[in-house]
Amino acid sequence: MSGDRIALGIIRKAHGVRGEASVEAWSDSPERFTEVSAVTLVSPDESSTRDAAIESVRIHAGRALVKFGGLDSPEEVQLLQNWTVEVPASEARKLDEDEYFLHDLIGLTLMDDLGVARGKVIEIEETGGGVLLVIEGPRGRFDVPFAADICTKFDLEARTIVVNLPEGIEDL
After folding, report:
1. How far apart are CA 108 and CA 50, in angstroms?
2. Looking at the predicted structure, is the pLDDT value of residue 1 above 70?
3. Confidence at 32, pLDDT banded by 50, 70, 90
4. Options 1.10.10.60, 2.40.30.60, 3.30.950.10, 3.10.350.10; which CATH number does 5-91 get?
5. Which residues contact 141 (CB under 8 A, 6 or more apart)?
6. What angle do CA 29, 7, 39 make, to 5 degrees?
């Protein structure tokens, strides 16, 4: 993801025979794809991009089925598997208080409730079980579930997250 674009989701596979893509939404709702018409498709290694128009969107089983202009067969869509669907950062939706873009969390320092730094967020992983913050700490890397009872306070200006870490999580 480029600093001037926001990823809305990722192309997982082709759907049907008319060139629709099954897109996993990275926003809170797959309906977000109905609000945009022009996107940039970005390869997994970010070395290639392709501008695309969204011709139609329908929601199916929690995913957005997106028909991109110029992609008319499942074979063409499969070539774009794992490419992200991105829009200019200026088109990002406005966040409510206590909402964050996941990419804004990278680089934040985890502080425990005693004010001790426990590590920095170096990556975000979206798994079937939810979002994990990948932390580089003094004892190595460890994962922290992105959950309200663990990540209790965010201060983007101070670049910190106050956490209530479960016992032994740094040792996993």
Report:
1. 31
2. no
3. confident
4. 2.40.30.60
5. 122, 134, 135
6. 95
